Amino acid sequence: MPARTDTFDLGALGLSSGEGRRLDLGVGLGTFDLGGERYETEPALVPVKLDVSRLTGGGFSLRARFEAALAGPCMRCLGDAAPVVAVDAREVDQPGGGDELTSPYVEGEVLDVAAWARDAFALAMPAQVVCRADCAGLCPQCGANLNAEPDHAHEAAPDSRWAKLRELKFE
Ligand SMILES: [Zn+2]
Ligand SMILES: [Zn+2]
Fold first, then answer.
1. What is d(CA 60, CA 107) in angstroms, rounded to the nearest whole number?
2. What confidence tens digit (pLDDT) does each residue in 92-150 have?
3. Model-level pTM?
4. 29 CA distance to ligand 1 centroid (A)?
């Protein structure tokens, strides 16, 4: 496992124009607060594959790939959930290339790989964190876990309008 890298000096690679390099980095993604709950990312040090290419006009083309789990309570049943999120993110940073070719994660020739990986992970995260895609959640009436009790049901409450009708006396 590579050592933890928060920022990476792209210039130090000494790449010549058009040359590329693949690097294996270890990046910490930190925690996320979602819906009032704290979610950890796992592993603590995520192996990130970073592809760096030196552009012919100067600057860099970057690609980061990694997988990490988002661990915390299932948003439906509150059990343990840890969906794995796959990230494949690209950035281009070309000095003088205008806004579209300027990466917010590159300062000079130093890449803030931790900030980039965290933002890319946040974009790839599911909107709802669930223990499994078909999690049945909790009974809205009593809070029973419907995964554990698939046949769980309540007696239908008698509809009061019908009760009133039965009270009517027909003459
Ligand atoms: Zn669940
Ligand atoms: Zn119930």
1. 12
2. 999 887 878 899 999 999 999 999 999 999 999 999 999 999 999 999 999 999 999 99
3. 0.84
4. 24
Whole-angstrom CA distances from 91 to 43, 53, 65 are: 24, 11, 12
CA of 157 to the centre of ligand 2 (A): 13
CB within 8 Å of 92: residues ≥ 6 apart = 55, 59, 60, 61, 62, 101, 103
The phi, psi pair for 48, rounded to 5°, reads: -115, 130
Distance of alpha carbon 25 from alpha carbon 43, whole angstroms: 13
Task: State in Å: Cα 129 to ligand 1 middle.
Answer: 9
pLDDT tens-digit map of 82-94: 999 999 999 999 9
Q: How remote is the CA of residue 138 from the centroid of ligand 1, in Å? A: 8
Residues whose Cβ atom is located within 5 A of ion ligand 2: 139, 141-142, 144
